[in-house]
Design a protein that fits this description.
Arc Repressor Mutant, subunit A; mainly alpha
Length: 435
């Protein structure tokens, strides 16, 4: 295991020239992928990025064979990346052609192009390895990535792509948002939707091609999708989504490369994706609005509210201001409360000051009595509305009313009162001086 000083040196870019290049390059790649991935996600093109990444492999093999035939450097990275970009664009155009000239759905078209292009790329690699002598060594690293072989020009390329992604995003954020959220309206309003869409997909192609060497064509799609999905769990605002996704992507590239450098023989691409997945898992659990913890807590609070409403409604309808332990046990059995839930419910209404302990059981305070009266009145209002306006038989309204009475807002209650009073139906106001 690495020592604390080794960890600190790696984190602060003091562990060697090559390591610093890898960390810087993958951080810039993650930043660009996170930003651009947001628009692929919002445009519902996440699977398109997967097809695009796999479609780059035939272009790499063709570029290698053409450069070998012309007698130029067949391992030139710019030449290979140009071939990858051209092949990826052809793959995307093939998907569009299938969608336009056939009745296949998008998922089928993506599956066809992804598998055919990737298969063609594997055949090309096999041919090269069998016929192109030693010059083809390491060409298959584009499948899984080889971040350790990064050179300063590679880092400059990723830095340039990251800057281009940020500039394009913040210059055309309004246009990108319009096309992502309502492309039909944008087209009717005269916006060049096809051009804007082409710019977005062009940025996706740039990031995909730039990530081939770092994480490989199989894993680069994760760098485009996972940061955007993780960021979506934290915010509903587009600008914040773009910023958070960029930070998650950059953080994943940075931490993944650091971990890979500290743990020998652990491929940087795979570690980066695993780090990114760890951030997504944390977001899925702990995000304040969409996380599992917050969603579970909201469901628990809602159930506590509903069952407390039933408790106070029961007391109001039976004109009881003291709920004995026997009555509470009977209500628990009727409402299917577990002993643990009943304990939590009692602690909740005690803390809210709606009941107090007495020798017989629990006595309703003024707040508890008023709550029971209000829930009972909401029940009566919605019941009368269903019978008067929805022509629901009285014997069929109780279950649906029982679900709705807990969530009626004051505005809706006032609207129900006005609607029913227009038909001469008056529901008495709750008696707030009962206790």
């Amino acid at each position: 295991m690495p020592s604390a000083s080794e960890i600190l040196q790696t984190l602060t870019f003091q562990s060697g020239y090559n390591t610093n290049l890898v960390i810087l390059g993958t951080t810039l790649l993650g930043l660009a992928a996170g930003i651009i991935g947001v628009f692929a996600l919002l445009r519902k093109r996440s699977l398109m990025t997967d097809a695009l990444s796999h479609a780059t492999l035939p272009g790499i093999t063709v570029a290698f064979l053409v450069s070998t035939a012309l007698g130029v450097n067949s391992k030139s990275l710019p030449l290979l990346l140009f071939g990858a970009a051209a092949s990826g664009i052809i793959g995307v155009l093939c998907i569009q052609a299938i969608l336009r000239f056939s009745r296949l759905r998008e998922d089928a078209a993506i599956g066809i192009v992804l598998s055919v292009f990737f298969g063609a790329g594997i055949v090309g690699l096999s041919y090269i390895q069998a016929n192109a002598a030693s010059g083809s060594a390491g060409l298959n690293k584009f499948i899984y990535g080889q971040a350790a072989t990064m050179q300063p020009p590679d880092v400059l390329l990723m830095g340039g792509i990251a800057v281009a992604a940020m500039l394009a995003t913040f210059l055309f954020l309004k246009e990108f948002a319009l096309v992502c959220f309502n492309d039909s309206f944008a087209q009717v309003d005269g916006w060049p939707v096809s051009v804007i869409d082409l710019v977005m997909m062009g940025l996706v192609v740039l990031v995909t091609v730039a990530g081939l060497q770092a994480v490989g064509l199989i894993l680069v799609v994760a760098m485009l999708i996972i940061p955007a999905v993780a960021a979506r769990l934290w915010t509903d605002r587009l600008l914040q989504l773009v910023i958070i996704a960029g930070l998650i992507g950059a953080g994943s590239g940075y931490l993944g490369s650091v971990i890979s450098a500290l743990l020998p023989r652990k491929p940087a691409g795979a570690v980066i994706v695993l780090t990114c997945s760890g951030i997504f898992l944390f977001s899925m659990i702990a995000a304040p609005s969409r996380g599992i913890i917050s969603a579970t807590w909201r469901r628990i609070r809602l159930r506590l509210q509903i069952e407390a409403d039933h408790l106070f409604e029961h007391a109001h309808e039976n004109a009881k201001f003291v709920i004995t332990q026997v009555e509470l046990k009977e209500l628990s059995q009727f409402r299917a409360w577990s002993p643990a839930f009943r304990w939590v419910l009692i602690r909740s209404i005690l803390s809210e000051g709606q009941v107090v302990r007495v020798s017989e059981g629990f006595e309703l305070t003024r707040a508890g009595a008023n709550r029971g009266a209000q829930v009972s009145r909401n029940h009566a209002l919605w019941e009368q509305y269903l019978m008067s306006y929805a022509d629901v038989a009285p014997s069929h309204v109780d279950w649906s009313v029982d679900q709705v009475e807990h969530v009626l807002s004051q505005e809706l209650v006032s609207e129900l009162e006005r609607t029913l009073s227009s038909r001469g139906i008056m529901i008495p106001q709750p008696n707030e001086s009962s206790v």
